[in-house]
Amino acid sequence: MTEPPLPAGAGPTPDEAVPTCYRHPDRETYVRCQRCNRPICPECQIPAAVGVQCPDDVREGNRNVRQARTTLGGVARGAGTPVTIAILAITVVVSAIDLFGVSGVGDELAMLPGLPGRFGILDGQYYRLLSAALVHGNIIHLAVNMYSLWVLGMQLEPLLGRVRFLALYVVGALGGSAASYALNYPIVDDRFLFSSVGASGAIFALLGALLPVMRKLQYDLRPLFVLLAINAFIGFSVSGIDWKAHLGGLLVGMFVGAGLAYAPRERRRPVHAAVFAVALVVVAVVVVARTAQLTG
Which residue in 131, 148, 195, 200 is the catalytic one? Predict the structure, then answer.
């Protein structure tokens, strides 16, 4: 079989070199990138609105495209709430190990000032301020908190974006533990007996953040106020519930949520970073001051 002859004028003249792909010099090609006019072989050709483009130009063009943002400035990454699901899954696994598996896990992760023969925050184990959100007192405690996380995460994560939502959850958990540490009196018969577990501080931070966020978006706040009132009643009326951790998480969430919702559009990123930084500094100051008080 013979190939048909090239049309007149097509192909190189005797004095011209055969063009080759700029990325694969061993491959002949007569197709060129629509942007830079460099020869590109079929493997390197990327379809464009008109003709084809080379990988380098496509990469450069994508670099100049602004990322889509959520209503409150987070990076929009499509549908779904992977951060909420991940937090829920990790918490369920750790709590289940504590409740039904390895004994003593709760003692190692709980928010403890210090116990005889054990260690706690007074001994420098500040990780307990966050790890306490991963363990729960019983299965009902776990189920209520995880259902609340699911409902609130479905609303907040798409609005805030994944990074901001995760940061809110973490700083809310720290704020709840710091308030519990500062406002509860742990000394009984010269021993530090107080401990706290659960993700309630972080959950209340999500609730607190929803207040300014919903106000900014002009949503009806009455259902949220009713939910807060119910939780406040339960916290004050049922023994064994650490309402101080709820209060700490709520206040942190309201502060962070206000900063996220009302930051000027043109300065969102630095304002949001500053809001989280201030919240963390306040938590650190509270913990350090309480530790100094208890050890002084």
Answer: 200
Give me the percent of the chain exceeding a pLDDT of 90. 40
Q: Look up 246 and say whether it is catalytic.
A: yes
Reduce the DSSP state of residue 174 to 3 states and report it.
helix
Which one of 153-162, 168-177, 206-215, 236-245 scores highest in mean pLDDT?
A: 168-177
Q: Is residue 39 a contact partner of residue 17, using CB atoms and an 8 Å limit?
A: no
* Catalytic-labelled residue, pool 95, 136, 148, 246: 246
What is the model's pTM?
A: 0.75
**CA–CA dist 207, 134 (Å, integer):** 19
Range scoring the smallest mean pLDDT among 19-23, 83-87, 116-120, 201-205: 116-120
Q: According to the CATH classification, is domain 82-289 in 3.40.50.720?
A: no
Is 272 among the catalytic positions? no
Cα gap 200→51, rounded to integer Å: 57
Q: Where are the domains of the chain?
A: 18-55, 82-289
